[in-house]
């Protein structure tokens, strides 16, 4: 057990969506400190080239390294798909993304081998969930559906609104018609719509929340590597939040979804890293 | 009358929204050729810094100059607000934006001096319409309302959908309660929701479409400077479209709103300009 065990976890996303992943880490690994970075000035990553996403991710990782993190969670579907494998070769601390944990669990729980995946247009077009699921079991049919209106609805705060229910109903209809028994919430914003989704798909469809599965994978990883924190250490700000654009909007959103008021938030110039 | 009169108009936007401005130019100035550039790889501009928007705009203008345009229309509210005045000093051809024409007409037509403006969060927070309107008449009250869900609804193609009507109704309600008699459609996507807006605001509220007013301003400008095209010149592609990301989605959207099928579309690397 060394000082390293008390070091924070670095978590990053293109914006605020990854806060749902941070939230699961807070809930499931309460002893761990977190440094979160949201690239709010360059959001969204979904329409950027692989080169751009890789360049941005490298800058963010250099910044997180200055915060002495002991492990990194890529809480962004696009960066997990486009940059994670390359970056893993370049750094000497553990790093995990959100796609593989969700895909693995979905492949394990499906009975009829029909899995639905909802996400942004970029995530669905990348077929990244399909690729990871079929690596587990090539027999599984994976049906993707892009839901471009759901992120703006969440960011507008209309979480349990009739409009949101109607929009989600239309997106899910073709998946349910194809008889899926498992649905991956393949965008970090979607866990905030979990109760809407549950109502629409009924009890028979298993909902897979990659944010939760990622926190569980992180827990296993820290234990295997002897990196888990043995207990809560006193710290003024166990959770620190950084963003590349003005923090006010970030703070409002974070306070609306996290179980406590966000203390330390700071804007940084990420291009300098 | 010189060869210059037959040169095309350069029109640019952060994405596809500026096509509504191109459409008004096609309708009102049918003799003019157009080169359109949509910065689809870097959309949206609304959350970017002034420096970034200025840098992007300069790159685009350098590209348009290689196409020998005779005048430039900044068909993007953010770039009109953040970059237009600076760029005007740097180039030797006429350039106009979308904000001033709409603001001028709204200030002229209001009777009760209460104007509503709807737009993206960035446009409304910039207060650019308010600034231009109150330069005309400081007595006018300008009430802004950010409508972040409307662009994704338009891009999803839900133009006359019940969901869109309900969302727009909620956004317009506080403006109507404040008794506006004029409403500026302060985002290039919104003219596509004109019939929805008309239904919601009734006949008493005057709708101002900056895309149309910009086309009329361009017409006056070309005539004043002796730059108007005297007639339709035979050209394989009188309207040419360029984008900084894959053109398929751009083409689909363009074909859905323009009065004919888009012929020439091409992806270019805008960072090289």
From TrEMBL, chains A, B:
One GO MF term attached to the UniProt entry? glutamate racemase activity
Residue sites binding substrate per the record:
13-14, 45-46, 77-78, 188-189
Task: Write out the coiled-coil annotation as residue ranges.
Answer: none
HAMAP family reported for this sequence: Glu_racemase
Function, in words: Provides the (R)-glutamate required for cell wall biosynthesis.
Q: Which reaction does it catalyse?
A: L-glutamate = D-glutamate
- GO BP field: cell wall organization; peptidoglycan biosynthetic process; regulation of cell shape
Report what the protein is called.
Glutamate racemase
- A single Pfam family it belongs to is Asp_Glu_race
Q: Which UniProt keywords apply?
A: Cell shape, Cell wall biogenesis/degradation, Isomerase, Peptidoglycan synthesis
Q: What family name appears in the similarity comment?
A: Belongs to the aspartate/glutamate racemases family.
Q: Which organism is it from?
A: Lactonifactor longoviformis DSM 17459
Q: Where is the active site?
A: 76, 187
Taxonomic classification: Bacteria, Bacillati, Bacillota, Clostridia, Eubacteriales
**Gene3D superfamilies given for it?**
3.40.50.1860
**EC class:** isomerase
């Amino acid at each position: 057990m060394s000082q390293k065990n008390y070091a924070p976890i670095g978590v990053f996303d293109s914006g605020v969506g990854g806060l749902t992943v941070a939230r699961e880490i807070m809930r499931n690994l309460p002893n761990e400190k977190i440094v979160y970075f949201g690239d709010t000035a360059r959001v969204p990553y979904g329409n950027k080239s692989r080169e751009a996403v890789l360049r941005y991710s490298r800058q963010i990782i250099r910044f997180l390294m200055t915060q002495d993190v002991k492990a990194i969670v890529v809480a962004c579907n696009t960066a997990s798909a486009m940059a994670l494998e390359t970056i893993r070769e370049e750094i000497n601390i553990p790093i995990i993304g959100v796609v593989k944990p969700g895909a693995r669990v979905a492949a394990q729980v499906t009975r009829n081998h029909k899995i639905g995946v909802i996400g942004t247009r970029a995530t669905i077009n990348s077929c990244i969930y399909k690729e990871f699921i079929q690596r587990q079991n090539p027999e599984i049919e994976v049906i993707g559906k892009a839901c471009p209106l759901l992120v703006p609805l969440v960011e507008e705060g209309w979480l349990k609104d009739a409009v949101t229910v109607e929009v989600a109903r239309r997106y899910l209809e073709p998946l349910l018609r194809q008889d899926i028994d498992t649905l991956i919430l393949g965008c970090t914003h979607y866990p905030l719509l979990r109760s809407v989704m549950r109502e629409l798909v009924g009890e028979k469809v298993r909902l897979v929340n990659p944010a939760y599965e990622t926190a569980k994978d992180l827990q296993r990883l820290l234990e295997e590597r002897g990196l888990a924190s043995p207990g809560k250490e006193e710290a003024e700000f166990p959770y620190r939040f950084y963003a590349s654009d003005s923090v006010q909007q970030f703070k409002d959103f974070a306070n609306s979804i996290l179980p406590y008021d966000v203390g330390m938030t700071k804007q940084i110039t990420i291009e300098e890293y």
